[in-house]
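Second opinion, please. Please look over this fold, written as tokens:

===
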Amino acid sequence: MSAEHQKALTFKALGLMLCYPTPEWTDNLPELLTVIQAEGLLGPAQIDGVNALADHLRSDVIAAQESYVATFDRVRSLSLHLFEHVHGESRDRGQAMIDLIDRYREVDLIPPTNELPDYLPMFLEYLSNLDIREAKEALSEPVHIIEAVAKRLQDRESPYLAVFNALLHLLGKPALRKAHVIIGGQKTADPTLEDIDKEWAEMPVEFLGATAPDTAQPHARCGS
């Protein structure tokens, strides 16, 4: 069997690194890193990035929890729910959820009752049930969402950028760097949360033929 027709747990491992960090959860980080390293789908730069994220999460769990909430729970443009960037609270989101669940059922994957199916870690677990080639094709569907969230994480200099850079690498996309834009010799100021949310509203992302409305809702968390 060729490598492209094998399944990869790297997708699921990357998704788990986006879960809410609890002490029990961080204890399992070495196992996730071992899986990622062993499968060899990521390059050295991506491996270094996820290792640095793991070190950050394990160094101070309380601080990591506060950072997680401030990043993913309080900024709607950083939501880990894919359809929130596309459908918001519109009726189309409900049908999209049903369609996504049907895809999960094809690989005997049933989302937990306390989690929405468009949660990125759940979607990545689904990808780990597909051949690598099929997984990459499915991951390419929300690539514009992944790129948009990655850019916002870059603006915030978030260590979670490492996971999104890893996903972009799997799609053959260039990684984003933690850097400030220099204009006329002056470093531009970091964007405020209001600036990022305004960008989200003014630059809606397309996914599966839909465009994003102006409304959104908080997401649930795995690993809590």
Residues 179-191, 200-221 have pLDDT under 50 and may be disordered. The first helix runs from residue 10 to 16.
